[in-house]
Design goal:
single chain; about 290 residues; alpha/beta; Rossmann fold; 2 domains; seven-stranded mixed β-sheet; 9 helices; about 25% strand
Length: about 290
């Protein structure tokens, strides 16, 4: 069992013929992902060989869906073209669009998210600036390495790519149902709350790891949601406990203002909701080990 991405998911890659798109298409195929084609209007009608697997290139997301039955798109296009690529995916009503691209202008993210809402949110957008989503042993859409962890019964949602990988590694003996990297930009499609809700409803996820970071109030809002709606154990980590106040850290969304958005304020809110919060990733893994044991 997994959320949003399963062994039956059919994946296309917007930007499959570019350097990043082709590299990660090859990795996704090696992980067992059912990649069925790519999209590049300039190379439509051609095909690309990936170690013996030939994938067709389509002119549009709509055409790719019609010809292959694709229900997931992974987007590897440069920042200047990301908005157009996401709008195309939304207009085609593909159920899941995973936007890997980093450096997407915030106004572009706002525009494609507003368009998705206007279209009735038929497309779940993950990202931008994210590592994607992986359901170990089933499918992998994005850049999360496929060999960190086997399948298991922990769900993970994270703003940080590298911390996603670290927690997957530290808890690899338990394994994961699905790992979702939501990205750290100020405007993202899928939130902590979306993933928490899905994991709560997934009968084969027993516990949840939630990784946040300083800045904004997403984690405080997630804490309120957990308190009201989540009965499964949740273990959390907030990146940035040692960050100096007032500084912008790695992710575009990590901006602290006064006491709002600090690691301590987020930790306090989560603990008030019954979440065990680690001060380091390793301590967070240890807390989850206690839960799973």
């Amino acid at each position: 069992m997994a959320i949003w991405l399963t062994k039956d998911s059919k994946v296309i890659v917007q930007g499959m013929t570019g350097s990043e798109g082709s590299k990660h298409t090859r990795r996704m195929l090696a992980a067992g992902t059912n990649v069925v084609g790519g999209v590049n209007p300039r190379k439509a009608g051609t095909s690309v060989d990936f170690d013996g697997t030939s994938l067709p290139v389509f002119a549009s997301v709509g055409e790719a869906m019609k010809e292959t039955g694709a229900d997931v798109s992974v987007i590897f296009v440069p920042p200047a073209f990301t908005k157009a690529a996401v709008l195309e995916a939304v207009d085609a009503e593909i159920p899941l669009a995973v936007v890997i691209t980093e450096g997407v202008p915030v106004q572009d993210s706002a525009a494609f998210w507003a368009h998705n809402i206007a279209q009735g949110q038929k497309t779940r957008i993950i990202g931008p600036n994210c590592p994607g989503i992986a359901s170990p042993g089933a499918s992998n859409a994005g850049i999360i390495p496929a060999d960190i962890t086997p399948a298991g019964r922990i769900g993970l949602v994270s703003k940080s790519g590298t911390l996603t990988y670290q927690l997957m590694y530290e808890l690899r003996d338990f394994g994961f149902s699905t790992c979702v990297g939501i990205g750290g930009d100020p405007i993202i499609g899928t939130t902590h709350i979306d993933a928490l809700k899905a994991f709560q409803e997934d009968p084969e996820t027993d516990a949840i790891v939630m990784i946040g970071e300083i800045g904004g109030d997403a984690e405080e809002r997630a804490a309120e949601f957990i308190k009201a709606n989540v009965t499964k154990p949740v273990v959390g980590y907030i990146a940035g406990f040692t960050a100096p106040p007032g500084k912008t850290m790695g992710h575009a969304g990590a901006i602290i203002s006064g006491s709002a958005g600090t690691a301590d304020a987020k930790k306090e809110a989560l603990e008030a909701a019954g979440v065990k919060v680690g001060k380091t990733p390793s301590e967070t893994a240890r807390l989850m080990r206690e839960v799973m044991s």
